[in-house]
Amino acid sequence: MKKLLILGAGTAGTIMVNKLAPVLDQSEWQITIVDHHETHYYQPGFLFIPFGIYTKKDVIKPKRDFFPTGVEVIFSGIDIIEPEKNQVKLTDGKVLSYDYLVIATGSQIKPEETEGLVGDGWRKNIFDFYTIDGACALAHFLKYWEGGRMVLNVVEMPIKCPVAPLEFEYLAEWWLTEQGLRDKVEIEFVTPLPGAFTKPKASQLFGDFLDKKNIKLTPEFSTGRVDAANNKIISWDEQDIAYDLLVTVPTNMGDDAIARSGLGDELNFIPTDKETLQSKAHENIFVIGDATDLPSSKAGSVAHFQADILYENLLSAMEGRPLRAQFDGHANCYIESGFGKGILIDFNYDTEPLPGKFPLPGIGPFSLLEETKMNHYGKMMFRWMYWNLLLKGAELPIESQMMMAGKRV
Fold this sequence. Notes:
Elements: E1 2-7, H1 11-20, E2 29-35, E3 39-41, E4 60-62, E5 72-75, E6 78-82, E7 87-90, E8 95-97, E9 100-103, E10 107-109, E11 126-127, H2 132-144, E12 148-154, H3 164-178, E13 185-190, H4 200-212, E14 215-218, E15 223-227, E16 232-235, E17 240-242, E18 245-249, E19 252-254, H5 256-260, E20 285-287, H6 300-318, E21 331-338, E22 341-347, E23 356-360, E24 364-368, H7 373-390
Parallel strand pairs: 1-2, 1-9, 2-5, 9-20, 11-18, 12-13, 12-18, 13-14
Antiparallel strand pairs: 3-4, 6-7, 7-8, 10-19, 15-16, 16-17, 21-22, 23-24
Helix pairs in contact: 1-6
């Protein structure tokens, strides 16, 4: 019997197993999915926890709820991937062989990579919101905070969901206003980027929103260390920024198993063909989601669009056909801007966000590069779509390739 092994049961891995299980003959193919956690997290929801919009129970469900029948599920850590032997060793000692391997091990924050970040201030007045524990701890802190300097610092790129730090700042400004604390808090956004975002036109728009909300933008700040004793972040060129509350987006890295296996770059992301999603080093290995080194956003929508491409190419590889499906870097992101409104951007490798209507040309109902209530509703509806459609591999009315219809150039 042939074996398909999927490593990682987050967004990307779960979508892939649900797409492939119905079409692969179970008398010929054994499908196995491995993950070290039994709980599935709706990661876009972490952003809302500090402001009391969501609670912990709103963003977690058992992973087993989303696996199709006939699939072997193993909950274990991954020790090492051995491509030359077509096998994977798990931390419990089990060895799994494969004919084809899909790596969907994602990315994770590594605050210990920054000197002083994990120390006396960690989870006291230094918090992340990219983990469930960090988001919940920050929510508790904000309940009792009476004001001061709030600094959000992105340590380095790439990060999961590049718009999330901006959303946090926008929501913080809204929440502080609602609490009657806005005039008691200075907000600063400190980023290594030359502007508010990775794409120039969207960066200008988002920067204008920061100005409108009286949020200071400090670009091109390359964080070297944190002086927690004196509440300062210090750049490699010795600039320093003081804080009372530091909300950090630490270094993001691929899974440690990728490093142990010698498959990744310096951040443990796997060199991947940016169009076919095939490993650049091994023909029977494919990579999806945050585990790749692609110049696309590390976001749930990207994993969804990649899944359509990987589905076609993996089946082609299994049948000995050329890999014809091509991923174009498509990303689609709703950005909460506070006060019940949101912004929507749609872009890919070559085309930056443009204004227009989405997904129906001229109709919408969503507006690109505009702040509207409908875009906010789209963001809030996405949680239901995530749990009930996207994870289960359902076809959504959004093409995996970015469409120019409805956009104004």
